[in-house]
Amino acid sequence: MTELTHPNINDGWFRESTTLWPGQAMSLKVEKILHVAKSLFQDVLVFKSTDYGNVLVLDGVIQATERDEFAYQEMIAHLPLNAHPDPKKVLVIGGGDGGVLREVVKHSTIESVTLVEIDEMVPQVSKQYLPAMAAGFTHPKVNVHIGDGFAYLKEHTGSYDVIITDSSDPVGPAESLFGETFYDLMRRSLRPGGIICTQGECQWLHLELISTVLTNSRKIYPVVEYAYSAVPTYPCGQIGYILCCNEAGRDLKKPVRKFDEEFEKTQLRYYNAQVHEAAFVLPGFAKRKLEA
């Protein structure tokens, strides 16, 4: 069998390649390359690292590692879900690794959650190489639709209590998911009092982009907030979340529902009620820019 190779892996190290964070690159030591392929939409790589477990990479950029994925998955799911008083129907756009699904179904109020993923190869490789994340696919409340998020939203007006967009960075197939048109489509697909939560990039690298998205969102939603958390293998060790609600006067910064203490200890590794509130406390440079 021919040994797998990949242009981002040299001398036993993986190195990210992207123009989105110039002058810096995350590197991980590689134990074994597990999967290399070109899907219809992007380059897909999975490798086993020496210290972060199996790693999913799309178009040269780390999407998830077994060691730290929970920090992102828990926050992007539980921030909007616990800010909603009674979420029943949830839509996840992207998130083909299954991690967000795994977190959403931890909420007893959920009646159904639909995942819309454009690239069917992502769920396939995640089920094979990232089974702890992909466990969400087997839950009876989960429905999976392979297709375009834009088209799906147009056909499901007023259908969801919470919409979570777990996208990669704004290049390639995910670029349109950061535009004003997409945010308006999500608003149309919400029920009254509905909340959206989207991947919100890094304030150290993408403050202008974040500011633009927030400015555009405030034209569409009466309540718009920005939160962030720490994830070691994302650029600068940080990732943001943009939350919007279609009902004026709502406070997304405080959970209106809380997990009990035993659940937090046994079922969660990053999120808790205190972290929920702290996630919206921004450093001075970001606060001045994003609240201007």
UniProtKB/TrEMBL annotation:
N-terminal signal peptide: none
One Pfam family cited in the UniProt record for this chain: Spermine_synt_N
GO molecular function: spermidine synthase activity
One GO CC term, this protein: cytosol
Keyword Signal: no
Keyword Cytoplasm: no
Superkingdom of this protein's organism: Eukaryota
One GO biological process term: pantothenate biosynthetic process
InterPro entries: PABS (IPR030374), PABS_CS (IPR030373), SAM-dependent_MTases_sf (IPR029063), Spermi_synthase (IPR001045), Spermi_synthase_euk (IPR030668), Spermidine_synt_N (IPR035246), Spermidine_synt_N_sf (IPR037163)
Coiled-coil stretches noted in the UniProt entry, renumbered to this chain: none
SUPFAM superfamilies: S-adenosyl-L-methionine-dependent methyltransferases (SSF53335)
All copies of domain PABS, residue ranges: 11-246
Keywords for the protein's UniProt record, in alphabetical order: Polyamine biosynthesis, Transferase
Family that this chain belongs to: Belongs to the spermidine/spermine synthase family.
Protein name (record): Putrescine aminopropyltransferase
